């Protein structure tokens, strides 16, 4: 609008400016209710331009943020699933390795229990032979004493003065006859019962021997099946022990089988160190009655004992002899008073002499190698070196004939030692690797025990990540590619079987000494260990990667 006068134009501008202020005030009041600011109306006139309104600036940022958030959620989901599966596989590998180790330790302990049972059975045979030999000795002694008393009674009967004494002695003879009859019946019953016992023990020891060998050979191989079963049960058949894992377990099984060695007992009468080891154990385990049955008064000497002869037969000898010698007057008395013998055999020998003589170690006796009972034991505790009675027992060990001296095994196996399994030389020499050398440990070679390593594998396409779960992600922007070596998620775990006698059960064990691993003591245990570096490298190379050893 044109102003005729400058004053009018100024007034018009002031009026328009005032109107604009009013419009701004009104718009601000309205904004408090509508939560947005309205722009004031532009006055129409010279010097003013019309402003444009701008909308939707935050939409682009919101869309980008939503994309990043979705991708982050998917990555977080995949990470959680992967970590969860990895933990599951590690636990599964630990469980499988530990289970395999436990089964192997139990197998060693079972062999140890059977070996101990065999030793106990041998002691039982020795006891039966001892009691049977002593019964034959008592029967012979009763008969000899009866005959001596009867001869004296006859002498008194002949004389008129000693008729009453002779009659009293005849009563003693009658009583001794009854005792002899009772002892003989007892002896005959013992022969039947003890022969049955020897037969049962022989069969049982043979079964123990065969079972030990079967366990020693077959148990390590069963670890392959056990490991696969444990893995499948713990992962719902999604993970497995693959070809690489089976190769590792097969190697470990072969190594574990080398810890148990088969020791044979010779049958041709020759001696071997392997057979002597078991013979020493059973000889030391004998009870006191079997080891030595001696006594006597003055010139009367009672001697007797039971020995393991030629590893296969148990032989007992008991003799009672009186030996006296004087120079004034020159008198020498060497009279056998009683004798008896017995032997547990598989086949009937030609004579008792062929079995009992010369005795253990060709008559040299037995030397105990153990510190708790170190010493020398003569053959049959000098029962076969008791002057005149010794010859009598070899020719006539039992009344009623030599056949009454045998306790026969009808099982077809020897009543003596059987082949057995024990730890091989230089195996399981220490309970743990203490970092010391073999010389410092006092052994020829440092070895703890067999190690079993389990390698668990699960294909990545079976892990519940966004790539393998329907409805999560979508091509092409919301999928995250699962990547793993050989497209498998893996876990590796190792367990070691070792021998250690529990210290809390045996407080008197010397701290500076450790018991070597043995299949006669059931103290085999298992623990999880770090997988050996060489095994980790072997597994890594099989996957085409490297696994440097970090100490």
From TrEMBL:
<dbReference type="InterPro" id="IPR028087">
    <property type="entry name" value="Tad_N"/>
</dbReference>
<dbReference type="Pfam" id="PF13400">
    <property type="entry name" value="Tad"/>
</dbReference>
<keyword id="KW-1133">Transmembrane helix</keyword>
<feature type="transmembrane region" description="Helical">
    <location>
        <begin position="58"/>
        <end position="77"/>
    </location>
</feature>
<keyword id="KW-0812">Transmembrane</keyword>
<protein>
    <recommendedName>
        <fullName>Putative Flp pilus-assembly TadG-like N-terminal domain-containing protein</fullName>
    </recommendedName>
</protein>
<feature type="domain" description="Putative Flp pilus-assembly TadG-like N-terminal">
    <location>
        <begin position="56"/>
        <end position="100"/>
    </location>
</feature>
<keyword id="KW-0472">Membrane</keyword>
């Amino acid at each position: 609008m044109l102003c005729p006068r400058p004053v009018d134009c100024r007034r018009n501008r002031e009026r328009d400016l005032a109107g604009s202020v009013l419009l701004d005030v009104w718009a601000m009041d309205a904004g408090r209710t509508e939560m947005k600011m309205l722009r004031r109306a532009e006055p129409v006139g010279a010097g003013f331009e019309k402003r444009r309104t701008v909308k939707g600036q935050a939409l682009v940022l919101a869309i980008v943020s939503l994309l990043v958030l979705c991708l982050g959620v998917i990555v977080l989901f995949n990470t959680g699933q992967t970590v969860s599966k990895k933990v599951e596989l590690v636990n599964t590998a630990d469980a499988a390795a530990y289970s395999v180790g436990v089964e192997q330790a139990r197998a060693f302990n079972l062999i140890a229990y059977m070996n101990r049972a065999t030793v106990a059975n041998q002691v039982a045979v020795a006891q039966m032979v001892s009691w049977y030999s002593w019964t034959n000795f008592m029967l012979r002694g009763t008969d000899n004493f009866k005959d001596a008393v009867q001869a004296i009674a006859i002498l008194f009967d002949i004389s008129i003065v000693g008729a009453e004494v002779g009659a009293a002695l005849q009563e003693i003879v009658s009583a001794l006859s009854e005792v002899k009859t009772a002892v003989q019946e007892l002896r005959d019953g013992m022969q039947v019962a003890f022969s049955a016992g020897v037969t049962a023990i022989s069969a049982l020891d043979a079964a123990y021997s065969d079972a030990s060998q079967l366990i020693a050979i077959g148990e390590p191989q069963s670890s392959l099946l056990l490991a696969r079963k444990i893995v499948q049960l713990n992962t719902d058949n999604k993970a497995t022990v693959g070809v690489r894992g089976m190769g590792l377990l097969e190697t470990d099984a072969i190594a574990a089988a080398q810890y148990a060695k088969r020791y044979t007992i010779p049958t041709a009468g020759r001696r071997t160190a392997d057979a002597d080891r078991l013979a020493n154990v059973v000889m030391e385990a004998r009870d006191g009655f079997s080891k030595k049955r001696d006594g006597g008064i003055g010139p009367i000497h009672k001697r007797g004992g039971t020995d393991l002869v030629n590893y296969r037969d148990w032989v007992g000898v008991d003799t009672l002899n009186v030996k006296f010698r004087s120079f004034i007057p020159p008198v020498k008395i060497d009279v056998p008073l009683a004798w008896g013998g017995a032997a547990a055999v598989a086949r009937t020998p030609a004579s008792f002499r062929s079995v009992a003589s010369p005795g253990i170690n060709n008559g040299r006796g037995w030397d105990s190698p153990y510190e708790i009972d170190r010493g020398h034991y003569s053959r049959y505790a000098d029962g076969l070196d008791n002057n005149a009675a010794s010859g009598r027992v070899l020719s006539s060990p039992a009344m009623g004939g030599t056949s009454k001296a045998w306790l026969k095994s009808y099982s077809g196996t020897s009543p003596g030692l059987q082949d057995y399994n024990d730890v091989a030389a230089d195996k399981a020499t220490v309970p743990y690797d203490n970092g010391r050398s073999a010389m410092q440990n006092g052994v020829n070679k440092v070895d703890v025990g067999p190690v079993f390593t389990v390698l668990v594998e699960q294909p990545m396409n079976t892990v519940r990540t966004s790539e393998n779960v329907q409805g999560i992600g979508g091509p092409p922007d919301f999928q995250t590619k699962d990547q793993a070596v050989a497209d498998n998620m893996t876990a590796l775990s190792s367990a070691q079987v070792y021998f250690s006698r529990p210290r809390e059960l045996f407080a008197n064990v010397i701290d500076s000494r450790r018991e070597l691993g043995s299949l006669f003591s059931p103290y085999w245990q298992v623990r999880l260990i770090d997988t050996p570096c060489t095994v980790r490298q072997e597994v890594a190379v099989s996957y085409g990667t490297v696994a440097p050893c970090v100490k």
